[in-house]
Amino acid sequence: MPQTHEGGATLEEIRRDLGKALAEEGSRPLLRLTDEELAVLSPATEGGSTIVAAPHLEGMPAQERDWVLATALRSLVSRDLVEIANTAELDAALRQENRSADVEMDMRFSPDLELALTLRRTAERVLAVERTTSEGTSYAYVFIHGTDVLLIEDVTGGGMHAFTLVATVPEAAESIRRLVDPHESAGHDGPTQELDPEALERDSMAPPMKDVIDNALVVGQLVLLADTPGPLLMTYATAEELWTVNVDAPHAPSGITARSVGEQTLVDSVSRLLAPTAVAM
Description:
This protein is α+β, with helices and mostly antiparallel strands. It has 2 domains: 6-118, no CATH class; 168-274, no CATH class. The protein has helices spanning 11-25, 35-41, 55-58, 62-78, 87-95, 111-122, 169-180, 209-215, 263-274, and strands spanning 28-34, 82-84, 107-109, 125-133, 136-144, 150-155, 160-166, 193-194, 218-225, 232-237, 242-247, 256-260. The strands form 2 sheets. It has a 10-stranded antiparallel sheet, sandwiched between helices. A two-stranded antiparallel sheet has the order 2-3. The two termini are 37 Å apart. This is ESX secretion-associated protein EspG.
């Protein structure tokens, strides 16, 4: 049975209409939220997305977390992202303390917030990206609804989440390339090197791969999350070059390769994770 959402539209109808709009108008930023705001919204969205990092909130003590969640709800309301439709009922329940727990909050979302939460919750495939530098770790998630509807969620180490609607796979891949190669180190394609799955520890690596790992300024990990586990791509960017390590499938006895890559090859590698048939081999 097709899933229906606010306004009675099915998910398929939302994807179709959104794909047409993005084709005409192009990609666009959607909105920004914090760890705390997303945590407030999670119960109202059937558990929310559990795969997304919440680096700021996860480090808080429980008592402090309760306080910031209450503040986050006020922020959502003040920014017109959320409307509490049963305020009068809640106020009445609070005046009768024994009834307050029996009244559920009726939250209504703005169109952009409803869209972001729907696309976030219903994607069957998600590309999860983690980038580590000397300054810390940041994240990105690409919620894939087809080659013409993608939602990118960029997450800073401080717990800010920026949502962007993207119209094409190449554009989404370019956004991820900039994340894992911020200094544009990817310069040229080198020969492919087969790696032994039983000898992937740093000390077991031979040059030049070991040297690249030792001198990496930016380390990226890209994994496709789906019902069937997808491939894994690791990136190691030094000041002079960028190497990728590609793992075709988890726990496979072979299919692990490494090579230095140029900018376009890096984009193509990310594109294949997003849409395996979108890039010619």
